[in-house]
What does this fold into?
Amino acid sequence: MGQIEWAMWANEQALAAGLSECGATAGAGGLWGGRGWTSGGVLVCLLEYPRSKRQKGSTMERCGQKYLTAVVKLFGPLTRNYYIRAILHAALAVPAGFLLSTILGTVCLGIASGIYLLAAVRGEEWRPIEQK
It folds into this structure.
């Protein structure tokens, strides 16, 4: 059996968390009227939508991913490094835990943060899918 690429799992988990937080807080009133957590969910979605290229095998690109890939590439090591992503997701999960409607997104972000930390420890990093 081959090596597991943990970042792929973390990407899917974090994208689900971002979508969950955007949807759950869109109409919620909370400390910030839901706007703060919604913008955090949008940030997570924009960061996580472009998939990373797999080390072995082929990677299926998401629809319209090439536009967001250019933005993620623009920020260089800040978006490529999985240690930074793990810290970012953990930091976004803390305030989201105070609103009942974002508990699911908080748990998903916490899990994604842990998986990204594991991926970073194993030496993985985000690589763009280049067109042939």
